[in-house]
UniProtKB/TrEMBL annotation:
Record domain Thiamine pyrophosphate enzyme N-terminal TPP-binding: where: 54-120
Protein name: 3D-(3,5/4)-trihydroxycyclohexane-1,2-dione acylhydrolase (Decyclizing)
PANTHER family: 3D-(3,5_4)-TRIHYDROXYCYCLOHEXANE-1,2-DIONE HYDROLASE (PTHR18968:SF9), THIAMINE PYROPHOSPHATE ENZYMES (PTHR18968)
InterPro entries in alphabetical order: DHS-like_NAD/FAD-binding_dom (IPR029035), Myo_inos_IolD (IPR030817), THDP-binding (IPR029061), Thiamin_PyroP_enz_cen_dom (IPR012000), Thiamin_PyroP_enz_TPP-bd_dom (IPR012001), TPP-bd_CS (IPR000399), TPP_enz (IPR045229), TPP_enzyme_TPP-bd (IPR011766)
Superkingdom assignment: Bacteria
Keyword annotations from UniProtKB, A to Z: Hydrolase, Thiamine pyrophosphate, Transferase
Family: Belongs to the TPP enzyme family.
Species this protein is from: Cereibacter changlensis JA139
Residue ranges annotated for the Thiamine pyrophosphate enzyme TPP-binding domain, each copy included: 412-563
Biological process annotations from GO: inositol catabolic process; isoleucine biosynthetic process; L-valine biosynthetic process
Domain Thiamine pyrophosphate enzyme central: 218-349
Entry GO terms, CC: acetolactate synthase complex
Pfam families: TPP_enzyme_C, TPP_enzyme_M, TPP_enzyme_N
Length: 609
């Protein structure tokens, strides 16, 4: 057997560089890296030697580097991914939040934190977490509950099994998620004689499982017996590449489609059977169709509480729930009739079973009335409105948008407002709402722009999220990556301030004006963004915002447009109930009434089915 003498770190990077997609691209496009003790000597040397065969990018924060990598994978519909390496200690634990984000959203990312010495020579090493009762524990054990696959590389030859396992997880549509390979720092530098065949290029195909015949038969029979079905399209539609199949299926059989946050953009908003989004951030027409449906066909969705209105939305007492999902765990949620298979395959097989069977479909007037109503709240304000609403900001971006525009966000007011209001072209929407992680936005926009450079990426971010994580704006400027940030400044956490009051509370500790501060904030976001290399400007009103959006389209790097907004309104339209527990005991009549309303809504929940 022919062997090659390499360090374990060199072997890892060489192996990753030859793991290919069916199209011949690297599955791991490159590696984000912040070096420190624990990865600079071993992994750092190995990456430097790879050059363009496995590019390395330098970020500003381990968490946001990982967010960029995750956004890249989401934009590539899980067909390609990135790796992220950190030092041990805080560098590693900074990535735990990102791992949780990838886990919840079922997205592939390879995290390679440095780890303690396997030989335990330096013990404890700098930044080592010590468990008094378990000598095998390190800080990286924090990753275990938020990893799809976790391994600790404490011998070079561990890579011979760990790396293929990592790739199998990241390319498994049912088990896809974050992989953590905690890499002991002395092992990274240790030489080993590797079988040459280990580095042969490997092509990874993403499987499309067929449905069980019995399950398929039950689903077709249930559909044929229904009178008013609705399709709930989730992210699985996009990851399956089933967008065209879904639109054709809905058109042939006359079934309305509603889209979750992860599924939005699967069907063009102008499709007459696209009734918007369901649930807490839902459109009026979608929520009505869902409430009246006698069969709900979920495709690639987890039926998360925002989608189901905390289990109050699908209110027809005679309704059936069907869940098409690759993961049996997800397919069985809410007592659904499961169909465990690929989304595109499911649409084809169900279509074959239905034949020419067609439903009457919902009243198209519901859809028309909804768009008329949203058009009013998104319209440009009359002269003199110094503080526009979030809906009016969205309207300005909507009027500017073209077929290549992609809007993205993650947390705060804008995700809900965008789901309700944004009229997405096919593939023009990217929302991280499984974990709704503040700080994802700017790093995510960077990852999307790297994945889809032909797109006009527009990142919505509030002042609160911007304050949490903005440093990858400097990375984008240094790399010359183009995207536009629309930064809405309502001087605090406006979204949670409204939730606080909506659940009977008084305004407290969310807006700066209601917080325990000595000096009112005078945050100059334009100066801050400009200092990091972005083009930055303050838009005085909606008309100025539209002009600046047009100008940003022509620039080469990142642009930041700041606009002041009012904090009270939010989307101002649509929506539904969300289960946020209201205190049983309190000091105000407002809180007592909120508790009474809460108990009424809890009584509407269809828990257990």
């Amino acid at each position: 057997m022919t062997t090659i003498r390499l360090t374990a770190a060199q072997a890892m990077m060489r192996w990753l560089s030859v793991q290919l997609t069916p199209e011949g691209d690297r599955f791991i496009e490159g590696v984000w890296a912040i070096f420190g003790h624990g990865n600079v000597a071993g992994i750092g040397e190995a990456l430097e030697g790879m050059g363009d065969a496995l590019p390395t990018w330098r970020g500003q924060n381990e968490q946001t580097m990982a967010h960029a990598a995750i956004a890249y994978a989401k934009a590539k519909q899980r067909r390609r991914a990135m790796a992220v390496t950190s030092s041990i200690g805080p560098g590693a634990t900074n990535m735990v939040t990102a791992a949780a984000l990838a886990h919840v959203n079922r997205l592939p990312v390879l995290l390679i934190p440095g780890d303690v010495f396997a030989n335990r020579g330096p013990d404890p090493v700098l930044q080592q977490i010590e468990d008094f009762d378990d000598g095998t524990v390190s800080a990286n054990d924090c990753f275990r509950p938020v990893s799809r696959y976790f391994d600790r590389i404490s011998r070079p030859e561990h890579l011979l099994t760990a790396l293929p396992r990592a790739m199998r997880v990241m390319t498994d549509p049912a088990n896809c998620g974050p992989v953590v390979l905690a890499f002991c720092q002395d092992v990274q530098a240790e030489g080993f004689d590797w079988p040459e065949v280990f580095f042969a290029p490997t092509v990874w195909h993403i499987r499309r499982p067929e449905p069980d015949a019995r399950e398929l038969g039950e689903v077709v029979a249930a559909l044929k017996a229904a009178k008013a079905p609705v399709i709930v399209a989730g992210g699985g539609v996009l990851y399956s590449g089933a967008e065209a199949a879904l639109a054709a299926f809905a058109a042939k059989h006359g079934i309305a489609v509603v889209e979750t946050q992860a599924g939005k953009g699967a069907v063009d908003w102008e499709d007459p059977l696209n009734f918007g989004s369901p649930g807490v951030c839902g459109s009026d027409c979608a929520n009505r169709v869902c409430a009246e449906a006698d069969l709900v066909l979920g495709i690639g969705t987890r039926f998360q509480d925002f989608t189901t209105g905390s289990r109050t939305l699908f209110a027809n007492p005679a309704r059936w729930l069907i869940s098409v999902n690759l993961a049996g765990y997800d397919a069985a949620k809410h007592g659904a009739m499961p169909l465990v298979c690929d989304a595109k395959v499911a649409l084809e097989r169900i279509g074959e079973g239905l034949g020419e069977h067609r439903f009457e479909g919902p009243d198209p007037g519901l859809r028309e009335a909804w768009f008329a109503a949203t058009g009013k709240v998104m319209a440009a304000p009359e002269a003199g409105n110094a503080l526009p609403s979030d809906a009016q900001v969205i309207g300005a971006v909507q009027r500017h948008a073209g077929p290549q525009t992609l809007v993205m966000c993650a947390a705060g007011t804008m995700p809900g407002a965008l789901q309700v209001l944004w009229r997405s072209s096919k593939g023009g929407y990217h929302m991280e709402y499984g974990f709704s992680c503040m700080g994802y936005e700017i790093a995510g926009a960077l990852g999307i722009a790297m994945a889809e450079p032909e797109r006009e990426v527009i990142c919505f971010v509030g002042d609160g999220s911007y304050m949490m994580a903005n440093s990858e704006l400097a990375t984008a400027a240094m790399m010359g990556i183009r995207f536009t940030v629309v930064l809405t400044d309502n001087r605090g956490y406006g979204c949670i301030n409204r939730l606080q009051q909506g659940t009977g509370g008084v305004p407290f500790n969310n807006l700066y004006a209601q917080s325990r501060i000595v000096n009112p904030p005078a945050l100059d976001f334009v100066a801050h963004a400009g200092s990091m290399g972005a083009f930055a400007v303050k838009a005085a009103d909606i008309a100025a915002l539209e002009a600046e959006l047009a100008a940003a389209r022509e620039r080469a790097g990142p642009s930041v447009i700041v606009i002041d907004t009012e904090a009270e309104t939010g989307a101002g339209i649509g929506g539904g109930w969300w289960d946020v527990a209201v205190p049983e005991v309190g000091r105000t009549e407002k809180l007592a009434q909120a508790r009474k309303d809460y108990e009424v809504n809890v009584g509407r929940q269809q828990v257990g089915g």
